[in-house]
TrEMBL record:
Keywords: Oxidoreductase. CDD domains: SDR_e. The keyword Cell membrane does not apply. It comes from the Bacteria. This is GDP-L-fucose synthase. It comes from Palleronia abyssalis. SUPFAM superfamilies: NAD(P)-binding Rossmann-fold domains (SSF51735). Pfam families: Epimerase.
Amino acid sequence: MSHSRGHVVVTGAGGFVCSAVAIALKEAGWQVTAIDRAFDDEARDRLAGVRLITVDLLATTDVLQGIAPTALIHGAALTVAPEKVGMTRAAHIATNIELLTRMMCAGRAAGVDRMLFLSSTGVFDSGDGVGKARLTEDVAPAGQGPYAAAKRAGEEITTGAAEDGFATLTVRLGNIFGPHEARRPSRPHLGLPHRMKAEARAGRITSGCAGAVREWAWLPDLAGGLVDLLAALPKMQPGVIHAGTPPVMSDAELAERIAPGFPHDFEMSGPLRPPMGTARPSPMTDIEWTPVNDGLAHLNLSGTAA
């Protein structure tokens, strides 16, 4: 481990993506404080050596009191559809925006000098960028749902908050797969590869979209790229970047890799946006991505018997 690079707070760190980011930061020499409403036993074990704070961010205004962080990665978000949790769309939007603004203000008051906001390609509509080889930052997002609206607003807020002594950047994440993926209240569904494997065992693969080609970012690679990006952040201009240009695979090929020879009957059809990529130079463009087939094999998701 290298010498300490500073003290970073990661919100949403009990979850699939941000727990991996917190671990990568610790391994890179950062002092890490991980914040979430809950950490299951597996997450606590994996986050050994990381300071854990279990708190509802909407129920406190002094979560960073006495911590003195220098950096913030904000990944906490409510991703489940509002009707699934008995919320109005307006309340769902307000919740996600308030999570961001509360942490941003708390971070500034505590002395944070750089911040990454983790957004999503969920800001895009299914037809955005159709005809392009990659969905890059030059495509204007047109997603209309409450999650998309809150993320787009968060991107603007994050950019607008940048000033001398406070560097900000939004990173849009796309399709991610990797170790330790699990359901949780704020993220009730597993990723497409896991759903396909479960459906193959049940006798019929329906998840997926006919004609779809998606990017697949191996989570350990992504987490390492975000560590490098955080270190480089003060030298970058505010705005939005996509999380690199990960390898791609069609839904049909993914189903075949997971269950060779097994018929699939996708319930969805296109048009669907092209796979995500980036046109903006950053440490994310230097990631050497794990091939999709290798990641599937590591997760024991490939070769399910038909």
